[in-house]
Amino acid sequence: MDISSLAGIVLALVAFMLGVGANIGDMIDPTSIFITVVGSIGATLIAHPKDKSFKIVNIMMSAIKNPTIDNLGTLRTLYSFAEKARRDGMIALEEDIPSIDDEFIKDGLRAAVDGTDPEEIRKILEIKMELFEEDDGANAAVLDSWGAFAPAFGMIGTLVGLVLLLKTLNDPTTLGPKMSVALITTLYGALVANIFALPMAEKLKKRTSKFVNQKRMSMEGILSIVQGENPRLMEEKLKAFLSAEERKAYEAEKGENA
Length: 258
Description:
This protein is mainly alpha-helical. Helices cover about 80% and strands about 0% of the residues. The protein has one domain.
């Protein structure tokens, strides 16, 4: 579970409730919630294919999860494979392939062991990366759409409220309450977009970028192994994909092992 996502949602809601104060009850209107939330989700279903839009709840849940992106583990694995391939030949890696959890590395090494040309391996892995990025990007696009439609449906709710308000202009005592209800849908639209949909979409985009970086590092490592590069040279190349913190941790680990 990604604690920063949960903390952010809680802080945003607390900030809103503190701003409203004791009038929180006046901010709750089921009809306006229905127009804004259900209406904007309906528009999102129209905008995206069912294999993505029907999973909007799952996509939201995935945004608050915290999947492991173990760049250090990937580097250690590839370095050990590079040493083994240099010592015993590429075919020696065949026995390690079934134990690899990462399907991307597994596919790349399987192609390498089969004697596939390095350029062909690069093309295969780049296509896999593009497909992964496109699929993950589609999840973020669903939330982006919801974030765009929610304020629009808030405005629609406000217009509906104003039309109903104009029909009762002969009764001035109802103007204030009805105007308040009319405007509240705009508020709901802004809350849905800025507390849930858009921040979650941004989180998914950043996460996708990190996964793609890990896959690119894996691809470069596999190509180095296929081309018979010195494991130390491959290690230095792959360290360029690490963040400053990861690089520091890896170098400290290597120093302890020396």
